[in-house]
Amino acid sequence: MGSWSLLAASSQAHVAVVSQILSFLFFLFFSKGALGVTFNIVNDCGFTIWPVIISTTSLNETTFELPKGSSRSFDAPSVWLGSIWGQTGCNYNRSGKWSCATGDCRINGTNDMDCSVYDVIIPATVVDFRINQTQTHSQDFYHVSIAQGYNLPILVEATSGSGSSLRSCAKTGCVKDLNQRCPTELSSADGKVCMSACMAFHSPEYCCSDSFSSPSSCKPTAYDQLFRSACPRSFTYSTPSDLWDLQTTTFTCNGADYTIRFCAAADSFSTIKLGGQLKSTDQLVSVRGNFTLGFFCEDYSYLGIWYTSDVQSAKVWVANPNAPIISTPGTHTLSISAKTGDLVISAGSKTLMRITDVKIGPNANVTATLEDNGNFRLINQVDKRVLWQSFDHPTNVLLHGMKLGYDTATGHNWTLTY
């Protein structure tokens, strides 16, 4: 399927995929480094979940109960290939077999809670990791996949890592409740699961198999568009030409630990709140994934906005086109000042640059949101007043909704620069 997940996308392809994975692992796991990776799993759902961890490396525990509002950590070796997802509604049935409402390891249930690489699972939102943090080489790959279906919102965040590209150490996942917009024909488990069209219909045109196995014969469907619009930062494989989808939804990081958060806030990718921050290696992404905001250049010395789908990441807006940020690369962040409510770029306790000058007072209820039209807005949540917006400060690109001209009432002048 073009993915390095431990999970097969369908039961028909399961044996072949596992065989390929094991052949790859024979090469990959010829040695282990002395380092290690810590994974912190957080349950922000309003109910108990049972996280599942499967890998080729034996762990002390692969499935455990995680009550709402709690967290739990585990350590993996420095070279590791694994997948993580969440089960819901789990218990032992009258026959003494362990079963779950969603994310069950085996279709027919099992007598224990353990899962393995060879298990066939029903649809679930899955996090895939390929960890390599040896002394000779350090680069991890990770993504969130809904290629098989969806059951829970998941957010993945790298901590204490580093990277040199715009896609290094960024947050990723699917934070929207896809079950709420799932078509009836894809919905299962009493509305707690949204299956992929392939899982639901098992037909070649939806599974890109048989006579539909080529890019020219297997075309994206309305179901594919639904999954992509709901979760633009997740891998949603549907056609053989979707290697681009995998490349743009897979992230890399060096020397990081990871937090996996179930049921994170729906605006986790698009909004900065008071007390939160955007790391220099991370980005904001608008709700439907149209635009991305983040630091760029090798030393992250500029803050800008670009079309997410633009491979070249040409900037449509830059906050500081003539004033690069002077800081140790990778140490500065974008946040809302607790003292003034302004958008500021800081390194530690030192303010390096002030993006806005609203000064509404300390600890104000202010948020900064990247919208789907490319406008970055600072909003007072008390009265929903827009305090500042990037559309009022265009650079050299005119986006739909921007203005040009002079406001005689306020004296504001909208002009493009070249």
Can you list the strand order of the major beta sheet?
3-1-15-10-11
**Helix share, percent:** under 10%
In the predicted model, the low-confidence regions spanning at least 5 consecutive residues are 8-34
- What's the N-to-C terminus distance? 44 Å
According to DSSP, the number of beta strands is 29
Roughly what fraction of the amino acids lie in strands?
25-35%
The shape, in one word, is: globular
Task: Give the rounded overall mean pLDDT.
Answer: 84
Task: Give a quick rundown of the structure.
It contains five helices and 29 strands. It has helices spanning 14-28, 197-201, 204-207, 222-230, 243-249, and strands spanning 36-43, 49-55, 71-77, 79-88, 91-92, 98-99, 126-132, 140-145, 149-150, 154-159, 172-174, 187-188, 193-195, 251-253, 257-262, 271-273, 277-279, 283-285, 291-296, 302-307, 315-318, 333-336, 343-347, 350-354, 366-370, 376-380, 385-389, 405-406, 413-414.
